[in-house]
Amino acid sequence: MDLSCTHHSLSRRRALTAAAGLATGTLLPLARTARAAAAQYGNPVIWQDFADIDVIRVGDTFYASASTMHYSPGAPVLRSYDLVNWEIAGHSVPALDFGAKYDLNGARGYVRGVWASSLAYRPSNRTFYWLGQIDFARTYVYTATAVEGPWNRLTSISTPYYDAGLLVDSDDTLYVAYGNTTISVAQLSPDGRSQVRTQQVFTTPSSVGTLEGSRFYKINGQYYIFLTRPANGQYILKSSGGPFGPYAMRQVLLDLRGPILGGGVPHQGGLVQTQSGAWYYMAFVDAYPGGRMPVLAPVTWTPDGWPVVQLVNGAWGTSYPSPALAAPPRQVTPMTGVDTFDGTTLKPRWEWNHNPDNTKWSVGNGLTLNTATVTNDLYWARNTLTHRIQGPTSTATVQLDHSAMRDGDRAGLALLRDSSAWIGVKRDGGAARVAMVSGLTMDSNWNTTGTGHELASAALPGSRVWLRASADIRPGAARPGTFSYSTDGITFTRLGPDFSLGNDWRFFMGYRFALFNHATRALGGAVRVTRFELSTP
């Protein structure tokens, strides 16, 4: 898992030792590509926050998994037919059932939960496996026969496999590469439920510093462990002697200029081979305030079996020729657009802030959010529903029926992170008004330091209101978020000043749009969101 940003290279356990070096790669000028006139794709391939990517191919379909920390369900599974256009298909971790803090019950799980984890497919039983450690305490394994689910917990293992990469070997044996600086390999039992053995296989040289974020591969009979130097480098280990080594190391990239202006160095992520034999590296770029964005580059191999990222004018390309693949069987579901909350379940684009109280929400005729917590602190409020922000800029608009709110209730649309603001409805003294609130803050231990203060408000006639938040998540400087409202869904009125989106990396997850409804006096109130739209300019 990446535990750092463009300007700060830090692991959970130690400061990164500085190391010198030059980025390696093969120059691939756009003017000289054989397919200069062919279709191109642009980076980032997904301008939403999907960090610590693991990417695999099963048949003609690509899948990727990502970190979600305190959001539930966790570990989204993305799907693509061309490595460029992606949809969210499901989640590998249905609920964060790892302790009371993930229910906001007496404690909080901010910046804990699902970190860098691994997604693999086992052909012998046609089953997907997700493996990841939680809270440095245990490793959990979930399985499913389809990425949409249902996903079920297969086991937990007492060894916490930090930043794990799961390999299904050609003989069906399961191995896990893991660790920070000291890299180990564990062999699992044939049923995947327990550890058979574990062994240290590599110690990172002091000249390199920290290596973590393992991805484990067997390619042409060689074993590879793909590792990141957070947050500016990528290295790879290779063994011809088996999964337990010995391993030789080579630098893949260091301080390489990335494709997002103002963003960081592409790193971490994984390697994947297309059905036509081409190789690609899907990494991510630290790009706060929005988060960490997946980027894609082609890879070639040296004659002696080392990967080389293909560069454009000495940098990770802002565009490359599209992968040479057959037309997809269908178009993927966009990550933007309208949701009217039809059906019986939430669509997989949504994740709760911590686990929800499932007795306090419903979908079908819109999204109904009953108050689930009495608090004046949004960070303690259960049943806050979040949606990733689309970069570089996007706008969320919600239609809210507030007729069932009770005095003291607060409901609305937030820009949610460790420094937050919102626009919403306050009901007090039997009357509703629309308000813009800022100053919701946490300290570096993720304890609340500010519960917010109202900066603007207006009387609110009727029982419906349209709330709008716009966010500029281009990295490199503080960016504005703005709020507005409408009483007819046509004419919108700005409310309050610009909100400065903080771009500090330490919260790891980027800003999200968030729908919330909490009580400050007593439970019993409700709101109904009849429409949500995420749009881009």
Commentary on this structure:
The chain is mainly β. It contains no helices and 40 strands. The chain is globular. The protein starts with 25 loop residues before the first strand and ends with a strand.
**Cα separation of the termini:** 32 Å
Principal-axis shape equals globular
The secondary-structure class comes to: mainly beta
Integer average pLDDT: 93
Describe the structure concisely.
The chain is mainly beta and 537 residues long. The protein has no helices and 40 strands.
Could you outline the blueprint of secondary structure elements for this entry?
Blueprint: E1 26-27, E2 40-42, E3 54-58, E4 61-65, E5 71-72, E6 74-80, E7 86-93, E8 118-122, E9 127-134, E10 138-144, E11 152-157, E12 165-168, E13 174-178, E14 182-188, E15 195-203, E16 212-219, E17 222-229, E18 233-239, E19 248-254, E20 267-273, E21 279-287, E22 291-301, E23 307-311, E24 319-321, E25 337-339, E26 350-353, E27 361-362, E28 367-370, E29 385-388, E30 393-401, E31 409-416, E32 419-428, E33 431-442, E34 448-459, E35 464-472, E36 479-486, E37 493-494, E38 499-501, E39 512-519, E40 526-535
Parallel strand pairs: 1-23
Antiparallel strand pairs: 2-24, 3-4, 4-6, 5-26, 6-7, 8-9, 9-10, 10-11, 12-13, 13-14, 14-15, 16-17, 17-18, 18-19, 20-21, 21-22, 22-23, 25-40, 26-29, 27-28, 28-40, 29-39, 30-35, 30-40, 31-32, 31-39, 32-33, 33-34, 35-36, 36-37, 36-38
